[in-house]
Predict the 3D structure of the following.
Amino acid sequence: MEQTTQAPSVPAPPQAESHTQPLPSTERDFHTRLSRRGTPAFRIGLIIAIIVLLVVGIFVYRYVMSYESTDDAQVDGHLNSVSPRISGHVIKLNVNDNQYVEAGTVVVEIDPADYQVAYDKAKADFENAQAAAAAAGVTVPITDVSTSTQISSTEADVASARAGIAAAKQQLEAAKAQLAQAEANDVKAQNDLVRYKQLVEKQEISQQQYDQAFAAAAASTATVSAARATADAAQQQVAQAQDRLVSAEANWRNAQTAPRQMQVVHSRATSALAEAQLKKAELDQALLNLQYTKVIAPVSGVVSNRTVEVGQNVAPGQELMKIIPLNDVWITANYKETQLRYMRVGQPVTIEVDGNRKTYKGKVDSIAGASGARFSLLPPENATGNYVKVVQRIPVKIVLDPGENKDHFLRPGMSVEPKVWIRK
């Protein structure tokens, strides 16, 4: 094998040291950025960044200015008070606190014993008054027929009495005529008797003729007495007929009061009917009081603030509990007066609830007619003359869209934060 020999290496001569020192990295980066800012690419990027920031700022500004929000808002609802309409002793309580009840559910029962007795008494009084009214009603036509018959009868009696007077007077005249005739015949008979007596004394006629004349004179005298008695009797008959006329006229005048008697009868019947109606009203009231012993829920909702207990004596109007209908709630938001400039009824609203952090949708229903301070117990007054302007808050009613509170989570008094979108 052939060996090769290597020449020894000669070290390189040292390089001469440079007098320029390298720059630190931070300073070097700064100079690099300065050099880059002068490039067109950097300028274009800066312009684009500014434009983007402006666009974002405009959108942010439009978003912020498109709604009005407040944290002074809460859920509101109806607080229906349940109270009895009668007084009594509570014997049963059918609900508990926070229990859901349907409208018409019996929540409290009051002892009905006293009201049952009152109802039975009112029913008996009504039936009695009804019977009296029926009897009075039957009396009216009977009295009407009776008075009509009485009037006709008394008129006939008056006419008959007057006819009797006329007949009696005619009989009196006939009796007077017969008396006059008998007296005339008696005068002739007496004169004949005187003449016959003178003739018999002179014996110019027989005793028999005188006796006949004497008998004729005596008979004539008796005839006069009879005629006078007949005339007296006829006179008495006239007087009796006149008395009967007076009595018939009195009965007729009494019968003429029949219309007023009918008015009295009608008034009694009307009074009896009114009494029956009064008893019917008392019966209805007694029935209502008996029904009021069962206190029912006026609306469907959740029982709250129950204060009644079994064994308690309650009075009319005393609050026993409240029922909150959770299907009918709304939002009352107290906005500053400066926030109402562009707020209108019907504008959409988003409501964020603190309780579940969920967002609900609704709309502005109405704006209150005065600030909340005006409805306070002691409205603020400027009696000293030192006026300090304070921004007032106006209640705004916001209603939820249908189906938003179907889980009934929202309860009156809960805090919410509504946003009214005043611009689209």
Observations:
- The CA atoms of residues 268 and 289 lie 31 Å apart.
- Confidence is low (pLDDT under 50) at residues 1-20.
